[in-house]
Q: What sequence folds into this?
């Protein structure tokens, strides 16, 4: 099995540790992983702003970088959802279809493909899980509170394998954080208010860390936490699943 | 309400000047969402019901022409006068002409979002006809000279103290009195006099049954019934998408409607109107007003399945924190944002962008409208039709240019982290909107790609 590591542009630039943890975790689980060095962005920021027609360059580049792998894995539910739903190619649609089928968000890849049932990680802290909407409602990584259906959560399932980690319960387990791509600046007031409310839910329930399968939500919440001089930190789920704290 | 030329973001800014009020608004609507969840969970077959309702509406939308004609014929047989209105203007004229023929200049009206959409009250008032809204929430916003901010809870943005103040001013209740029960009793007395003296009543329509020619009006206050039963003329106004094929389908929708809206098992009154009583005139106006245009848009036709429960508003994290008036249209919230661009794409170009695309609306929708996907699709249409602002369009082109080229991306990244200037959260920045209330991420010493090149340990 050869996995292509898809690292969203802002993780590459701002949160390399989340990417390094993803790579190391996959390697630790015995997977052969390569990172196509010429990758840039999946095109989601443009598409969600109504400019999907301008993403052909990004799409073609994505296909070129990733078509050959058995699986494509990324530490971002949002970017994976975008690829799954909107990656097309005028010349090579067959390849595009194939890419769309084999792209996975990290935690769903761990639970559904690798069928991981134990991890060697240890993280002795209180952790609040932020269910990022695109991963949750888009990729169905966990059950949604709106539906009358049996609960499950792929990220939680994995976090429960981490030694000494304590999950905190939230008042609103799957409310959006308000990042929303360009929404975060175009609708600044609402975006920040949503972020403040989300952060408060975690803080009020004693979380020391807020984690998620999407770094963009965490970046937004981190911006708010730091402005509040809070001691609470954000950490990508890959960094917790790969943690070897003693 | 005159909202000037401000868009959703601008109006939301104003709403957010009072954070404690935003918290109160959010909690109030979240409480309704929680009640909805509780009610839904009492029915193990909830998801199957939603699926059924959605399929019935699929059938309706594919056979709308036939059902409308069947409904018209049956309704006429029952003695109802049926009118057809192509748009809001024609609808308003029809109502006016019926009232004029009867010499009526004062009427009562129960809840009807269609008449809000058509701005009927303004039209009639200009012609010298007084309209009293009889739904309590609607009467409150009418006294405040505001439009409803929510389709089911029209005055949800008002605190009881503010309502007390309004009632003191208009209905003469004691100053400072804000006890809901007391105020409701005062409104009851006030409205009772209107019901008894008005000769014409307008109601909305929740469902119209093609098989029987009857229509069903759902309220909790019984105000539609009180108006219609006491008036000599009953005018019911409905959008053409309110048709359902058979009476047996009604139960599916009645079970979903109130549970989705307020968490009640069923509305207090679900009244069937079949025919006028002796001596009464009953009119029914079938209104298109852009609905057939929407039906012709493959990506958006499902929006016509809406039964106006308001669940998408209650669950929407944006709506809860921006208030209904920030949508500057009769139907606010997620559903309003996919309906409004069909009515006026330029005026409502901002609404499909007033969302994080979180998808909660789609999950609560009792008729399974893919609301958040339609928001995404409207964004594409609005940009292609040229209604996006030009600065944003230029930024997006620059972004594509850079992101399509690995070399440019890496070079730009190194030159002070390209992303910091051009990433999604920086595009179209109005003096750096990110930084106003949030710190910037701390740029690391090296990017992941730089690290990978040095530590390539495949």
A:
């Amino acid at each position: 099995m050869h996995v292509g590591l898809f690292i969203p542009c802002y993780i590459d630039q701002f949160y390399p540790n989340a990417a390094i943890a993803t790579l190391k975790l996959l390697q630790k689980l015995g997977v052969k992983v390569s990172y196509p060095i010429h990758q840039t962005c999946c095109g989601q920021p443009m598409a969600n702003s109504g400019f999907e027609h301008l993403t052909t360059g990004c799409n073609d580049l994505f296909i070129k970088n990733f078509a050959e792998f058995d699986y494509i894995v990324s530490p971002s539910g949002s970017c994976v959802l975008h690829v799954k739903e909107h990656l097309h190619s005028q010349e090579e649609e067959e390849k595009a279809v194939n890419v769309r089928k084999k792209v996975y968000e990290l935690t769903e890849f761990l639970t559904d493909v690798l069928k991981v049932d134990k991890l060697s990680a240890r993280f002795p802290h209180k952790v609040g899980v932020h269910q990022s909407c695109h991963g949750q409602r888009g990729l169905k990584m966990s059950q949604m509170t709106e539906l009358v259906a049996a609960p499950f959560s792929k990220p939680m399932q994995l976090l429960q394998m981490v030694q000494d980690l304590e999950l905190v319960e939230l008042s609103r387990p799957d409310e959006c954080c308000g990042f929303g791509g360009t929404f975060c600046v175009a609708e600044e007031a609402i975006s920040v208010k949503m972020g403040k409310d989300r952060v408060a839910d975690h803080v009020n329930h004693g979380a020391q860390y807020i984690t998620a399968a999407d770094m963009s939500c965490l970046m937004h919440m981190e911006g708010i936490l730091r402005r509040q001089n809070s001691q609470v930190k954000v950490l990508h789920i890959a960094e917790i699943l790969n943690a070897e704290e003693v | 309400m005159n909202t000037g030329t401000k868009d959703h973001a601008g109006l939301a800014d104003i709403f957010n000047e009072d954070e404690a009020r935003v918290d109160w608004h959010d909690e109030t609507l979240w409480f309704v969402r929680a009640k909805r969840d509780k009610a839904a969970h009492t029915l193990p077959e909830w998801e199957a019901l939603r699926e059924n309702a959605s399929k019935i509406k699929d059938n309706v939308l594919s056979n709308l022409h036939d059902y409308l004609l069947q409904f018209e014929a049956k309704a006429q047989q029952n003695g109802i006068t049926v009118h057809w209105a192509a748009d809001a203007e024609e609808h308003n004229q029809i109502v006016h002409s019926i009232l004029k023929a009867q010499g009526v200049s004062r009427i009562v009206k129960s809840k009807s979002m269609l008449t809000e959409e058509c701005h009927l009250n303004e039209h009639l008032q200009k012609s010298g006809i007084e309209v009293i809204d009889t739904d309590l929430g609607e009467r409150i916003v009418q006294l405040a000279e505001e439009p409803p901010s929510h389709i089911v809870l029209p005055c949800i943005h008002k605190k009881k103290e503010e309502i007390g103040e309004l009632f003191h001013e208009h209905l003469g209740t004691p100053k400072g009195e804000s006890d809901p029960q007391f105020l409701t009793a005062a409104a009851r007395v006030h409205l009772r006099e209107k019901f008894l003296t008005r000769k014409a009543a307008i109601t909305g329509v929740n469902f119209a049954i093609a098989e029987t020619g009857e229509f069903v009006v759902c309220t909790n206050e019984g105000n539609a019934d009180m108006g219609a039963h006491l008036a000599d003329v009953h005018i019911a106004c409905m959008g053409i998408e309110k048709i359902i094929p058979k009476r047996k389908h009604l139960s599916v929708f009645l079970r979903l409607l109130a549970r989705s809206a307020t968490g009640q098992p069923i509305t207090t009154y679900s009244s069937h109107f079949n025919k006028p009583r002796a001596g009464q005139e009953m009119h029914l106006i079938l209104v298109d007003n852009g609905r057939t245009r929407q039906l012709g848009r493959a990506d958006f036709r499902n929006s016509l399945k809406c039964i106006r429960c308001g669940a998408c508003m209650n669950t929407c994290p944006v709506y809860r924190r921006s208030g209904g008036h920030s949508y500057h249209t009769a139907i606010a919230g997620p559903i309003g944002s996919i309906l409004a661009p069909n009515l006026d794409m330029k005026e409502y170009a901002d609404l499909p962008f007033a969302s994080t695309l979180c998808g909660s609306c789609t999950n609560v929708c009792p008729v399974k409208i893919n609301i958040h996907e339609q928001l995404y699709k409207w964004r594409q249409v609005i940009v292609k039709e040229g209604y996006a602002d030009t600065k944003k369009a230029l930024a997006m082109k620059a972004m594509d240019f850079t992101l399509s080229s690995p070399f440019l991306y890496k070079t730009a990244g190194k030159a002070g982290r390209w992303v910091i200037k051009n990433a999604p959260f920086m595009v179209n920045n109005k003096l750096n909107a990110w930084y106003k209330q949030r710190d910037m991420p701390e740029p690391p010493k090296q990017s992941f790609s730089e690290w990978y090149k040095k530590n390539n340990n495949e």
User: Anything to note?
Assistant: Chain A touches chain B through 81 residues (CB under 8 Å). The mean pLDDT of chain A is 95.
